[in-house]
Amino acid sequence: MDSSRISLRPFKLSDADDLLIWASDDKVTSYLRWHTITSIEAASKYIQEVAIPHPWRRSICLDDRSIGYISVRPESGSERHKARIAYAVGSDYWGQGIVTMAIKMAIPIVFKDFPYLVRLEALVEPENVGSQRVLEKVGFKKEGFLRKYGFNKGEIRDMFIYSFLSIDEIP
Ligand SMILES: CC(C)(COP(=O)(O)OP(=O)(O)OC[C@H]1O[C@@H](n2cnc3c(N)ncnc32)[C@H](O)[C@@H]1OP(=O)(O)O)[C@@H](O)C(=O)NCCC(=O)NCCS
Q1: C-alpha of residue 78 to centroid of ligand 1, in Å
Q2: Which InterPro entries does the annotation name (predicted)?
Q3: pLDDT tens digits for 5-40?
Q4: Parallel, antiparallel or unpaired: strands 119-124 and 82-89
Q5: Where exactly are the structural domains of the chain?
Q6: Which regions of the chain are under pLDDT 50?
Q7: What letters, b where the CB count within 10 A reaches 16 and e where it falls short, cover 107-142?
Q8: Taking a C-beta distance cutoff of 8 angstroms, is the pair 82, 50 a contact?
Q9: CA-wise closest residue to 119 among 74, 60, 70
Q10: pLDDT of amino acid 49
Q11: Left if phi > 0, otherwise alpha if psi is -120 to 50, otherwise beta: which for 121?
Q12: Residue spans of alpha helices (H) in the chain
């Protein structure tokens, strides 16, 4: 994938049709905490009520059309040095290096946008090998295995925890 075709930008209400293509796919949401979005009304509501007000949620765009997202949510108060990162891209685009490219673009922006941020964290289910590979390619360090840590789709699941610090280098 030509990196000049990939960009990150805030969501717009006009992304609803494009968002519905990837957000309605159970393959995309199975490792995410949110459920598939199945109508254009729900896609518009999600953009207006979740994506736009989010502290940092960007659309991953191919030729400026939304094909996925990255979100970073910093904690508050004395925990504001930490933030959790999450991401997905439509299944038609898997395996083309797009999320790797998008996270590499996001990291310097996020550390600039949140000056107190020191540590980005990612939680990944053991079966989600593609996501672990992405984090390794981007320079995240695998720190441990958290038993029965995350609640997702009605189940309490094991998770690997990864981190990237503000002093770390993107390979
Ligand atoms: C996981 C996901 C984000 C990866 O995005 P992507 O754009 O396909 O990732 P990239 O192409 O940049 O890299 C994927 C890497 O994983 C590898 N990979 C993918 N599936 C794999 C598998 N089942 N076994 C081994 N390697 C796998 C690819 O070969 C590639 O590595 P390589 O470049 O060394 O060949 C994407 O599949 C997705 O959106 N999944 C659904 C949502 C999700 O799981 N989000 C993360 C929650 S923690």
Answers
A1: 33
A2: Acyl_CoA_acyltransferase, GNAT_dom
A3: 999 999 999 999 999 999 999 999 999 988 999 999
A4: parallel
A5: 3-118
A6: none
A7: beebbeebeebeebbbbbbeeeeebbebbebbbbee
A8: no
A9: 74
A10: 97
A11: beta
A12: 16-23, 26-29, 40-46, 98-113, 129-138
Q: Is 112 left (phi over 0), alpha (psi -120 to 50) or beta?
A: alpha
The residue to mutate among 30, 35, 94, having the most atoms of ligand 1 within 8 angstroms of its beta carbon, is 94
Q: What is the tens place of the pLDDT at every residue in 86-97?
A: 999 999 999 999
The answer to whether the predicted template modeling score (pTM) of the entire model surpasses 0.90 is yes
Q: Cβ atoms within 10 A of the Cβ of 13, count? A: 11
Tokens 């989600």 correspond to 128
Assigned CATH for 3-118: 3.40.630.30
Cβ(16) – ligand 1 distance below 6 Å: no
Q: Is the CB of 128 under 6 A from ligand 1?
A: yes
Percentage of the residues of the chain whose pLDDT score is greater than 70: 100
Question: Can you name the residues that pair with 157 across neighbouring β-strands?
Answer: 150
Residue 62 in contact with residue 5, Cβ under 8 Å?
A: yes
Atom of ligand 1 nearest to the CA of 122: 48
Q: Residue 41 contacts by C-beta under 8 Å, 6 or more apart in sequence?
A: none
89: helix, coil or strand?
Answer: strand
Residue identifier of the C-alpha nearest atom 10 of ligand 1? 97
